[in-house]
């Protein structure tokens, strides 16, 4: 008899925010000390126990940027396979409800026009989020 051991892969759910303000989108540069150092991401992070995607995202954005957001629209989920784990990115289009950003984790943030988004070095998988955001914009306009 052949036994097949299928090891269970860790699945990490990460809500993240495509934050719009005055026609621009916020990109955050990850710290040099973290995984995916100095690459760009949509701010957000892993859920805590019992949180919904929306609750976790609002908490993460408060922690990382010290601002309040309004969640506008959920974009399609993007799954990123790292071999030893799967990162399930759950992006939401958001708006700022408060406007003074204080960075607690990111190296820097940039406000980019939608067409400028692909020009920086995003973590793998985020280009899918950008494409899905473009699709959302084209339907909305
Ligand atoms: N917030 C966010 N995380 C992203 C994006 N793309 C992407 O691969 N990630 C990854 C980076 C992290 O591995 C994970 C988010 O977890 P986290 O915010 O707690 O970051 P972390 O460095 O502490 O996590 P880790 O990799 O050390 O486990 O998702 C993105 O656009 N936004």
UniProtKB/TrEMBL annotation:
Record carries keyword Lipid biosynthesis = no
**Record flagged with keyword Cell inner membrane:** no
**Reaction catalysed by this enzyme:** 8-oxo-GTP + H2O = 8-oxo-GMP + diphosphate + H(+); 8-oxo-dGTP + H2O = 8-oxo-dGMP + diphosphate + H(+)
Cofactors that this protein relies on: Mg(2+)
Write the record's keywords in alphabetical order, separated by commas: DNA damage, DNA repair, DNA replication, Hydrolase, Magnesium, Metal-binding, Mutator protein
Q: Name one GO molecular function term.
A: 8-oxo-7,8-dihydroguanosine triphosphate pyrophosphatase activity
The GO biological-process annotations, alphabetized, read as: DNA repair; DNA replication
The protein's superkingdom reads Bacteria
- One of the Pfam families matching this protein, by short name: NUDIX
InterPro entries recorded for this chain? MutT-like, Nudix_hydrolase, NUDIX_hydrolase-like_dom_sf, NUDIX_hydrolase_CS, NUDIX_hydrolase_dom
Q: Which SUPFAM superfamilies match?
A: Nudix
Ranges of residues in domain Nudix hydrolase: 9-134
Q: What is this protein called?
A: 8-oxo-dGTP diphosphatase
Origin species:
Dyadobacter sediminis
């Amino acid at each position: 008899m052949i036994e097949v051991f299928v090891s269970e892969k860790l699945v990490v759910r990460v809500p993240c925010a495509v934050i719009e303000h005055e026609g621009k989108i916020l990109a955050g540069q990850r710290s040099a000390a973290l995984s995916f150092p100095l690459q760009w991401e949509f701010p957000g992070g892993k859920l805590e126990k019992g949180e919904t995607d929306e609750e976790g995202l609002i908490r993460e954005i408060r922690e990382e940027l010290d601002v309040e957001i309004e969640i506008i629209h959920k974009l399609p989920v993007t799954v990123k396979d790292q071999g030893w784990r799967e990162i399930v990115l759950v992006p939401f289009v958001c708006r700022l409800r408060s406007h003074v950003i204080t960075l607690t984790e990111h190296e820097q943030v940039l406000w980019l026009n939608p067409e400028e988004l692909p020009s920086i070095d995003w973590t793998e998988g985020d280009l899918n989020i950008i494409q899905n955001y473009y699709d959302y914009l084209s339907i909305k306009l």
